[in-house]
Amino acid sequence: MKKYFAFIGMLGFMIANSQVVIGGSTPSSSNTQLELQNSGQKVLILPVAENETILPKYNSSQPDKYDDDATMEAMLMYNKEESLANVYDGTKWEQAFNAKNKSTTWTRASINSTNMTCLSTSDLFGQLLQLCSSDNLKFSVPPNSSQFSDYLSVVRNSETFRIRQKGLYRINFNVLFSGFTAGFDFNGARITVVVVVNGVEKAYMSGKASPFINIGNYLVSTDGVLFLDVNNDVTFRLVLDGSSWSISSYNFGGTAESNVSIERIL
């Protein structure tokens, strides 16, 4: 019987101190206890939470929303609502896999070329017709460019920035546009850039092109400050409005001078 218990004890010790490799046969390090090796189209799927309230240790009454538990430190879960992998640090859940030794306070994208037109007429009693363009500006992040960064936010699609870090942001907008305005009053065409956060208009940047018959190039630079939260979606809506009895047509972006930068300042 003593030999039996001794054998069981030795077997348990060997299992507890063995190295387990999944996806291969030889561990890459003597320090590895559990190792996942990848060859081909194989992936690891993390446990998933629909939102932060499903994450373990969630407690809305706590200032940081989570209970402290040092024994659960280093847990990983994927938060579907935030589209982020989170790691539990023993007190709260934080974003995992942050880029290190790179810019973490700003992101920048170039403004792609887009054309907008406006036709407006009126009489003594007011406006009769206004057919004017309004659309989201489209962006691109050039690959392998040291002047552009994408660690602060993600360009989800050609129109949308998704914010990764909560804070106060400076939004800098620079665009070179060219075209013409032909009108019969002193107002000219008004160009307005609207900063939209999660579908809600938050800030406006406006300017006017010259009235009467005018053909030219214009470079506009403006700044704005907004508080943005994690996973806020930010778009830039461009609106071209004409004055009475005028027609306008302008091409925006598509040049080295045309870009948007979003910088976290606090």
Q: What form results from the Cα inertia axes?
A: elongated
User: In sequence order, what are the helices and strands, one letter per element?
Assistant: HEEEEEEEEEEEEEEEEEEEE
Helical residue percent band: under 10%
Which percent range describes the beta-strand content?
A: over 45%
Number of helices: 1
Work out the number of β strands. Answer: 20
Mean pLDDT: 76
Provide the gyration radius in Å.
28 Å
Query: What does the largest sheet look like?
Result: 8 strands, antiparallel
Unreliable sequence segments: 99-103
**SSE class:** mainly beta
How far do the termini sit from each other?
69 Å
Structural descriptors:
mainly beta; 266 residues; elongated
Plain-language structure description:
The protein has 266 residues and is mostly beta strands. 6% of the residues lie in helices and 47% in strands. It is built from one helix and 20 strands. Strands 7, 8, 9, 11, 14, 17, 19 and 20 form an eight-stranded antiparallel sheet that branches. Strands 10, 12, 13, 15, 16 and 18 form a six-stranded antiparallel sheet that branches. Strands 3-4-5-6 form a four-stranded mixed sheet, with no helix packed on it. The model is unreliable at 99-103 (pLDDT under 50).
